[in-house]
Here is the input.
Amino acid sequence: MAKPAELAPRGLPQSIDETMELLAAADYVAERSLATVLYLSLKMRRPLFLEGEAGVGKTEIAKVLASSLGRRLIRLQCYEGLDVSSAVYEWNYAAQMIEIRMEEAAGGVDRDAMERNVFAEKYLIRRPVLDALSGTAGQAPVFLIDELDRTDEAFEAFLLEILSDYQVTIPELGTIRAEEPPIVIITTNRTREIHDALKRRCLYHWVDYPNAERELEIVHRKVPNANRRLSAEVVSFIQRLREMDLFKVPGVAETIDWAGALTELDKVALDPETVSDTLGVLLKYQDDIARIEQGEGRRILNEVKAELSAA
Here is the structure.
């Protein structure tokens, strides 16, 4: 990603159609319903809460927005045990201790002055939340809060306070308020339910797996050098996999990876041996791989070949 000084900020889209064009220009193939809620989120300055299975393109929306609008992308990757010092700010204790030792060595220590010096902003380490509140008017960053469901309810409650006023209080410095609220995208894979209080602050959209037509367009855009027949077979094969009761069905990210891997192998069509050899690109659990290798893969491939031959 380019450095902030190199970014060329552009205005927000002024219609749903402009939002569709903005996404399409970055090779993100979106349904109109997604473009609509994204446009409203930008227009109303409300966080956008995206929910859906892993690998359907939720995180990519934030990346596309940042790139297309010429804004910084600030990402808070959530995980169990995430706390304020990791998400908001902390002090550079090592540098503060050096400052204290230097002042003590100089003699004539003024305790009040020392406290002001060691808690100066130059010793403040800005984490993603505080960094996201430091954007200037017209250049507010895109703030991605990724996989919120991985955190605990205590952090969720803290985040609710941040999103209410777009400000944070640092006891030693005071309250820091955003000059312009960041563009907030929140994603969750729904491993647990997020509290209604936070959802009410946001506009909501469920990001589903794409249908075959849209997924094929995604593959054409993301893997343009893939053979057309191969791309069609890959998409048809994966669409059928998603109908099965697998531990983890492949997402769009796996579709792109598989099409890319097969292209690297100079394949122009699927065959049973190729499918078996490359299942590790597509599926991530051994039980799922074993099930496909034990006959399901050949059955699906035969159905795919028959369907495309008849089309």
Q: What stands out?
A: Residues 1-7 have pLDDT under 50 and may be disordered. The radius of gyration is 24 Å. The chain has 15 helices and nine strands. The CA atoms of residues 149 and 192 lie 6 Å apart.
